[in-house]
Amino acid sequence: MLLRQAEIEVQRQIRSKAIISQANTLSKLFYDAGVAMGGYSITKSPLFSDRYDKIVRQIPQDLNELKSLVGDNPRQQKILENLADITVTGLKILGEAKAAIDDNRVDVAQFRARHMYKEIRSLADRLQDELRGLTEDERKIESESPEVQNRNRATVKLFLVVGVVFNILLAVALALFFSRGIGRRLNVLTDNSIRLARGEPLNPPLTGGDEIAHLDGVFHSMADALTEASRKERAVIENSADVICSIDIDGKFVAVSPASLSMFGFSPDELMGKRFIDLIIPEDVQETIKAVRAIRAEQATMNFENRIKKKDQTTVTVLWSAYWSESERSMFCVAHDITERKLAEEATKASEKRIRTIIENMLVGLIIISPEGIIESVNPRTEQIFGFTSSQMVGRHLMTLFTEARLYSMNSREDLQQFMDNLFHKALNRVGEFDALKQAGDDFPIELSLSEFNMADGRFYLANILDVSERREVERLKKEFVSTVSHELRTPLTSIRGSLTLLNVGALGALPDQAMKVVNIAERNTIRLIGLINDILDIEKLESGKMDMVFQNVDLTSVMERSYESVKTFADNNGVLLEMVPSHINVNADGDRLVQVIVNLMSNACKFSPKGATVTVRVDEIPNWIEVKVIDRGRGIPAKFKNLLFQRFQQVEASDAKRKGGTGLGLAICKGIIEAHGGTIGVDSEEGKGSVFWFRIPAAQAGAQEKKVS
Amino acid sequence: MKVLIIDDEEDTRSIAAMSLNIIGGLDVVEAENGKIGVEKAAAEKPDCILLDCMMPIMDGESTLAELLTNEQTKGIPVIFLTAKAMTSEIERLKRLGAVGVLTKPFDPTMLAGQVKALLGR
To answer: Is B23 at the interface with chain A, CB within 8 A?
Structure first.
């Protein structure tokens, strides 16, 4: 009996374990079904739907197994029946929800989920009542046999399991409901992102304080920022002076900014659909095609230029900056009008060419040197002057071209510096004379002038070089000629004048009156001829700047005395009285030349003074100047002649030269001599009342050194 | 007082000689070039020499140098009588050792006086 009881107990315990295990399996299945459904509702992946289908098929089998285990306890069977009902209803609701998800009827699925939640909620309430009944059963069982107690405990376990199953079902329903809710919000988010990408207005902002609402808020700020950026971009495109456009793979305009109207004469609407190539002038088509091909091949932003025929048939030169977008299958371009720039460039090129032509054909050698004296460039004339080629000169020191190269060392920094110092001293902004060296080794004279100029890469000097060999030779010949003429004329004149004077003074015996008269005429004219030769030589020397002057400290009293001695006889012959008002003033001057000037002025005064009149010579000191006046009481000089008088061969009356003698060169020579002293000469005169010829020379500086000027 | 005139131009020599002799009352010796001039100076021992500048064979400057170095002639004062008119030339000639420079064409009536003035007589 006990053994049998024990066996029954063992079997019951085994069954009890099986029920619990089965119930666990069932609850796990429901849990899995819920998870699979949740996953499916969000992803719609077949992985989830397959799993779900498998579980749904499994649940009824497991339920039947549980039935067989429960046995014949009517109360337990009733509960199991209810459980089976709820399971069927749950599976049905899940099935409908899945169908709604499959049909994309999200709202239906949500509705089903809500419905299922209510239904399960009421089933759960009913189950609570059943469980309450079970608790009462348990109390009764406590008083029964341990076997019955144990059996009843197993039953309670079963129903506890069933409770868990319901809770799981409930959880599944809730998960489904909320996942559908989150899914909807996520859908709004996804839709917003698509709208954002397309530039469409976003859905109204999601409410709530969760991450999704926060994320949606970020989306809206992003959309606002993008809208603002896009607005600005549009403003830039629409207001840009450059044409911004895109050209599709067929070479047609698909977007054009408004600047096309002013740049090409075509409005954006006129250009849309038009072929790019049709705008280009025929000469530039090939190059443009080549450029566009390169842009497509390189997939990079590249520039090219071409000329566009505007609507009004004029041409505009355009710089295109373009890149090819493979994804858009279009070329994006920015067109910049460079017509003005091109014209300016062409003008600059033409001007450069002109200047280059001038420089290359100049008769002056041009050398550009660095401040250190290194030759940077030379013009062709420089090559001719020195006999070196350009490449032989560029990069070398300028001293190579000078005779200093023989004395100084090219390797001595001091020597080079000394050469450059001398060069700057003698030739910067003025003309200096130098001895240059030809490639063949010959010396020759040059004139060189340096001027400074600045370029982007530093300071340079331009040397203008003139080969003055020929000029020097001409000067030498001229000097020689003047000297020869002077000598050759003076030698015979010495004899003629000497002979006539000797005759005239009776040194060779008395002559008949007629002969005396003729000899006198001959002597007078010979003296005049000698004067003319002297004057011509003086004028020539003054004009060529070769007048020899010997400046020294001169006492004006001696100058006045010498002048008086020279003119005295002439004045006596003209019946004119001389009045000298000297002054013991020293001047820095060429005394002989001052005597020449005063004698000239006094002789003129005597010539034009009436007999018995007085010619006064006086010296006055005025601030910084010494003034010498020669005052006559002659006929005076008309105002219009005052300036002409000091020009060559000018006399107040044409007949004066014959009547009064003189060459017409005297005053011009006086002017030249006084100017060489740094002074001025002039005349104050009133017609009929005589004239005052005056000159002023600078007063000698205290302690002034004697100086020689030639 | 005896003056030696050294000049290659015979006409000039004659006029100068007449001027000095007839108007100035001086004795005159003539030489037609520098070489003969130096010889005559040594032989005649004149009181003064009037020396032309531009001459063949031996020009005035060389002749002066010779006269100044020759033991027999170095004490004789020399005056250049030249057709060179440039001031700088005249200054240069003065510095060579001549006592004075007179220029051609000269005034025959004044020549003897000018010579005497330069000699301080």
So the answer is: yes
